[in-house]
Amino acid sequence: MTLEHNQSTDYYYEENEMNGTHDYSQYEVICIKEEVRKFAKVFLPAFFTIAFIIGIAGNSIVVAIYAYYKKQRTKTDVYILNLAVADLLLLFTLPFWAVNAVHGWVLGRIMCKVTSALYTVNFVSGMQFLACISIDRYWAVTKAPRQSGVGKPCWLICFCVWMAAILLSIPQLVFYTVNHKARCIPIFPYHLGTSVKASIQMLEICIGFVIPFLIMGVCYFVTARTLIRMPNIKKSRPLKVLLTVVIVFIVTQLPYNIVRFCQVIDIIYSLITDCDMSKRMDVAIQITESIALFHSCLNPILYVFMGASFKNYIMKVAKKYGSWRRRRQNAEEIPFDSEDPTEPTSTFSI
């Protein structure tokens, strides 16, 4: 997890040979980042709590509706269902990181590796499923109508997305561990540290942002242009939805990936030598990654709740629950206006 790594990392100099005379003024001064850790102890738990509550509620509704009530699904429905599952699994890791920001990692080395890997798997797969949704919407608008059912290619695509995300999480399983300060951070071998760390981050940026962004940009641009050219249809709402999806994706994901790219450049060329600049970079990664995480809370609104069909399913479920509750209440009411003997009933209603 990038923000945890940065908020707990200090600059240290490397001790070389112990004999001989040294000019200690050439060594890098230790950068104490206590302010960064104090900021993280306040900001991260508060933000993660809000994201956890909102995200769990929204994505749980999506999974429940698609899993139990909507029997006939399209390809977009399958992608949205997988997206909601990925978002839920990602959000379930947030309480661990919130506690870690305040008290340090208390769950041991294995859970450090597993939680870090889960975080990467679901973050990356979520971005990939957004790209899949954009491709399916592009085909639905620009191509001739096809069979609406879900076939093997759709499930194969989902499988490939999950496998790609799992493969990308292998470095988390290998390198993440708990250091002497009880922090869950990646520790790379000295001879591979710079190259491996930079390569992993660049790969995550490409697969988790650049590729999905390019796919979404091209697909939604062509889709919007096709909608504008179509005669005799109401275009304003679909275009607004497409524009909203793209803007939200850019606003939430672009700042985080720009900061991460700056980190990669710094890893390779060691550009940041000032302690204050290092602290600002750490705070920036905490804020931008938290904003990027909040996209998991917005996905149900952007991709599901705006749709008329899903609203109809929610209304059906609400009506079904409402009628069940009224029947339950009527069955448990005590008929005070009757003198006939009655069976004992509960005075509470569900």
From TrEMBL:
A molecular function (GO) term: C-C chemokine binding
Record's subcellular location: Cell membrane
Membrane topology field: Multi-pass membrane protein
Keywords in alphabetical order: Cell membrane, G-protein coupled receptor, Glycoprotein, Membrane, Receptor, Transducer, Transmembrane, Transmembrane helix
Superkingdom of origin organism: Eukaryota
InterPro entries: ACKR4, CCR1-9-like, Chemokine_rcpt, GPCR_Rhodpsn, GPCR_Rhodpsn_7TM
Pfam families to which the protein is assigned, alphabetical: 7tm_1
Start and end residues of each G-protein coupled receptors family 1 profile domain: 58-303
Transmembrane segments: 42-66, 78-97, 117-135, 155-178, 198-222, 242-272, 292-310
Record flagged with keyword Transmembrane helix: yes
PANTHER family attached to this UniProt entry: ATYPICAL CHEMOKINE RECEPTOR 4, CELL ADHESION MOLECULE
Entry's family note: Belongs to the G-protein coupled receptor 1 family.
UniProt name for this protein: G-protein coupled receptors family 1 profile domain-containing protein
Species of origin: Gulo gulo (Wolverine)
